[in-house]
């Protein structure tokens, strides 16, 4: 980026005063009116003029010590301010003249040299630093000078300085490391490794030398020796995060994740706020799907890096997975402040509130997802499902229509909006009507879309079931027989026919034949076993019924119908406690409010049956 010298605006203003004096009515030119090249030239011109003027001021100031002190202080403050503002070109000019005023101040010489380096004037910096190092032999000056030598391709001079520093202080870590790096770059790896070993022997608690040896081995492609070097660095200096990170990464790359986790875990007990190792720990635990363990590390890392939004998203997902919903909501709400239009964050918040059955809040978040989002369709589906539940609850509890109106408006709009999802939204709409026992409306809703391409076999089963509830048995049978004509080995279709006859109490032997056909095709199917058990119950064979139904429940433990059938069998056996247990279990998994009410009625009847004769009301 091209800088604008602090002196350029002054020069620009002064150069324009004369030229514009007779044209007051015109707007004065601004810096924005000039090209970058023109501004850069003005910078150079301004600096040249300012430098010339400063030379004159320095000559004048040297006439007295007070003048020197005053001007040197003033220029030093201005130079420092230029450094803070990143205006190194101006700072160099100012420091140059400060040094001219106070030539024997080592601190000013060093400051001037560093500023020269920042402007890229390495040769002038070299002159200043050579003179200063010769005078002071200061380690920091020597390291800077060696770095300049490297920058101007005088590598042997750099190595001479590093060796000089090491001869005076064998534990000078920077000198040793830079010297070995210099040798390694020149492909003198044997000498580089020997230098690092020599330094390590003299400073045995410092793991940095083995760490850099490991990096050299890595560059050579010798992974085993690199692992050994990083391990040794870690042993020498357990607090050296670079060694832990390098060793852990190598272990991860070799899929030795458990070993990497152990190293990270041990290190983080002593250095709990090392963000680099925390990041690695979070990543590897995520990879191994150890979500419960990763949470405390992710929390700690998030505290250290509060602006890391990706990490916050991960943490929110972890909280959600661990069912820590309030914590997840708090994280995603913070993220929403930073990214108020994020469809993903809105979706996460909607999904969490939905999981908590806080449908009002969930709908509010889902409703903010724009139609351009890839999550818009699913959010529309989830809203439809929740509005259906709210409308059903409203129907059974209050008899009002607020949520019903909202639901029907939403679902009808989506049926029109999503042409390729008309069936899916129609199923939700039909489910609402089924939930309030309006089977006729539910059936007609599905009939409207039965010619759609996406109307699958499962949708046919659902429509057939609605036909059954409306006692349209011929239509139901015809629909299922149509499935069997295309799929003669469809066990569920045969089972549907048999169970339908059982429920009606008609053609029991025919029902048994259909169920047996289904069982031969799919003998391990829990639903078919349930039908067989219910057949035996209808026939009065309670023992066989119980055996088949228990087998069915093992295969499909949460099915409401199977649980209800088991409750009925145990009621018949007068085992009322067991019967109630199955009804309570069914109540946990019931989908529609109407079915919930039926189960609760059955439980009340069961309680009545348990009362002794003297306790029953006449």
Automatic annotation (TrEMBL):
The keyword Transferase does not apply. The keyword Glycosyltransferase does not apply. InterPro entries: TPR-like_helical_dom_sf, TPR_rpt. Keywords: TPR repeat. TPR repeats lie at residues 241-274, 309-342. It comes from the Bacteria. PANTHER family: CELL DIVISION CYCLE 16,23,27, CELL DIVISION CYCLE PROTEIN 27 HOMOLOG. This is Tetratricopeptide repeat protein.
């Amino acid at each position: 980026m091209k800088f604008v010298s602090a002196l350029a605006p002054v020069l620009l203003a002064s150069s324009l005063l004369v030229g514009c004096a007779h044209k007051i009515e015109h707007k004065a030119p601004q810096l924005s009116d000039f090209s970058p090249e023109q501004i850069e030239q003005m910078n150079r011109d301004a600096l040249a003029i300012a430098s010339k003027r400063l030379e004159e001021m320095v000559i004048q100031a040297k006439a007295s010590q007070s003048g020197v002190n005053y001007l040197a202080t003033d220029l030093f403050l201005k130079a420092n301010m230029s450094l803070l503002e990143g205006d190194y070109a101006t700072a160099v000019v100012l420091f140059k003249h400060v040094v001219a005023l106070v030539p024997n101040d080592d601190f000013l010489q060093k400051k001037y040299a560093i500023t020269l380096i920042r402007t890229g004037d390495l040769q002038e910096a070299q002159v200043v630093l050579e003179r200063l190092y010769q005078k002071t032999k200061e380690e920091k000056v020597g390291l800077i000078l060696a770095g300049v030598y490297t920058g101007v391709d005088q590598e042997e001079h750099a190595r001479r300085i590093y060796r000089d520093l090491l001869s005076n202080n064998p534990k000078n870590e920077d000198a040793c490391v830079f010297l070995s790096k210099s040798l390694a770059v020149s492909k003198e790896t044997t000498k580089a490794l020997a230098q690092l070993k020599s330094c390590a022997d003299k400073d045995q608690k410092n793991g940095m030398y083995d760490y850099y040896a490991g990096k050299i081995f890595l560059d050579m492609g010798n992974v085993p020796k690199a692992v050994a070097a990083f391990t040794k660095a870690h042993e020498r200096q357990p607090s050296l995060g670079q060694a832990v990170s390098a060793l852990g990464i190598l272990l991860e790359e070799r899929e030795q994740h458990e070993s990497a986790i152990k190293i990270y875990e041990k290190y983080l007990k002593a250095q709990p706020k090392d963000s680099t190792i925390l990041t690695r720990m979070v990543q590897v635990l995520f990879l191994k799907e150890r979500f419960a363990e990763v949470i405390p590390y992710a929390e700690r890392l998030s505290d250290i890096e509060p602006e890391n939004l990706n990490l916050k998203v991960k943490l929110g997902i972890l909280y959600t997975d661990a069912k820590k919903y309030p914590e997840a909501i708090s994280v995603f709400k913070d993220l929403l402040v930073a990214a108020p239009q994020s469809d993903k964050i809105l979706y996460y918040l909607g999904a969490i509130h939905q999981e908590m059955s806080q449908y009002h809040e969930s709908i509010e978040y889902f409703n903010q997802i724009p139609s351009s989002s890839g999550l818009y369709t699913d959010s529309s589906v989830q809203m439809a499902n929740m509005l259906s539940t709210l409308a059903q609850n409203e129907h059974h509890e209050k008899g009002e229509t607020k949520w019903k109106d909202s639901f029907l408006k939403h679902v009808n709009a989506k049926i029109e909006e999503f042409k390729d999802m008309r069936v899916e939204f129609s199923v939700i709409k039909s489910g609402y009507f089924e939930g309030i026992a309006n089977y006729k409306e539910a059936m007609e809703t599905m009939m409207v879309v039965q010619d759609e391409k996406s109307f699958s076999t499962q949708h046919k089963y659902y429509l057939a079931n609605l036909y059954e509830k409306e006692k349209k048995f011929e239509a139901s049978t015809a629909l299922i027989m149509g499935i069997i004509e295309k799929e003669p080995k469809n066990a569920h279709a045969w089972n549907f026919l048999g169970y339908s006859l059982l429920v009606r109490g008609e053609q029991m032997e025919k029902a048994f034949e259909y169920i047996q056909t289904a069982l031969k095709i799919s003998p391990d199917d829990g639903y078919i076993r349930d039908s067989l058990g219910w057949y035996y119950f209808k026939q009065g064979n309670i023992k066989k019924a119980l055996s088949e139904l228990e087998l069915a429940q093992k295969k499909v433990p949460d099915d409401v119908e199977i649980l209800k059938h088991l409750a009925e069998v145990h009621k018949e056996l007068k085992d009322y406690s067991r019967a109630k247990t199955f009804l309570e279990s069914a109540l946990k998994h019931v989908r529609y409010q109407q079915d919930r009410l039926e189960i609760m009625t059955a439980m009340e009847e069961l309680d009545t049956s348990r009362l002794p004769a003297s306790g029953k009301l006449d």
